[in-house]
Fold Amino acid permease family protein.
Amino acid sequence: MNDKQLRWFTVALIAFNMVWGMGNVVNNYAQQGISVVTSWLLILAIYFIPYALIVGQLGSAFKDSKGGVSSWVENTTSNKRLAYYAAWTYWVVHIPYLAQKPQAILIAAGWAVQGNGNIVNTMTVQMVAVISLVIFLAFLYLSTKGLSTLKVIGGLAGTAMFVMSLLFILMAVTAPFITTDMEFATTGMNQVKTYIPTFDFSYFTTVSMLVFAVGGAEKISPYVNSTRNPAKEFPKGMIFLAAMVGVCAVLGSVAMGMLFASDNIPKDLMANGAYSAFQILGNYYGIGNSLMIIYALTNMVGQISALAFSIDAPLKILLADADPEFVPSWLRKRSNKGTLVNGYLLTGILVSIIILLPIFGIKDMNELVKWLTNLNSVVMPMRYLWVFLAYMMLNKAYKKFTSEYKFVKNPKVGFIFGAWCFAFTAFACILGMVPKVEYAADPKAWWFQLISNVVTPIILIMLGMILPAIARRDKNKNVKETLIKT
């Protein structure tokens, strides 16, 4: 069979399923309101399109590399230490992500069983933290036993969630034509000024959420050289991807504006918004809670699978072929069945700390969901920085590498694009650290969120810097023991 059978539209659809989800719409609407429509258009034009095309060139240049971003960094810099840091970053940014999954499972289960968001509005942070910890530790243990069946089911649930996200947009946009007495929650939706953001400091602190939403394009790289004509078909597919993301982001945000007032966004929108939206639409269409329950069950299974997969997969990427020069032997230790015992243990300790941390500074679950979502938007994009560094170095050493697809032919222009995306990502991450809670409303929570948003990524990265020193000490110790024996 010819391995170059993929067409541009197939690649675009694969990438769309990887990148997009309803949470992207809900979370960003919760932060910016209806003006997020303009923000989506801007972020797609100045960031997402060049990001996706940059990944395309890297994937094409290093089509035989199995290590993804870390391999790109090693090939372009010839520096194993930087490659290790890239691999470490890819793994460690999943720690806050894993800490958030038990909450998402809990919220989805509450909507599926109770038909409302009371879990979010009634449970204490302490209770949520304890239950989330129990859920996480249970799946951490199960992951060591292998969860291949759950991952397959989760893949199907992920596709179903993707379909539900598109169904939400379709039903919301067509609702006014079916329900003639429907009133839009947001006023002035027929006026252009309603969609223009105020570009102040507060606005720029929300950009990290947009970057977080459109990130992850590096997952597309394996498909670049599988297209019939990478130089022509891949960029066409990425432009089509950007168009699909743009349409879904804009129409999804408009749909949210129809259902939730932009100038009076519910406090629990980030936690309960997606479920409430399906509940409201179900009532408009006369089918009650059916849509909401389907979405809640689908999301719950999807979140369970994401939790299991994200414990397992990033850890294997980091430790499967780890360089003994940088990763200590105790972290690479395997059981008789091949399980990375201490890798799971380290994951468990770090995630448990993040899960329990809010007990000391957050009062209610709504703020807890907002804080963890924002923390993820600060930490997760840190891995994209390595993509852009690799692309800059690729353009500096362009004579050494060949690729069927090139984003731009001029290496100097290519370097500028890489530097721009690197700087924009760093800018978004740094400003995203500023708490979204008002200082006057809760000074303690404001300081807690600021300190945790700044300290968490620093500690996670520093931990990765400590490991090579431990590995070096172990190596020297082994050498001495060998010399003594001989």
Summary: The radius of gyration is 23 Å.
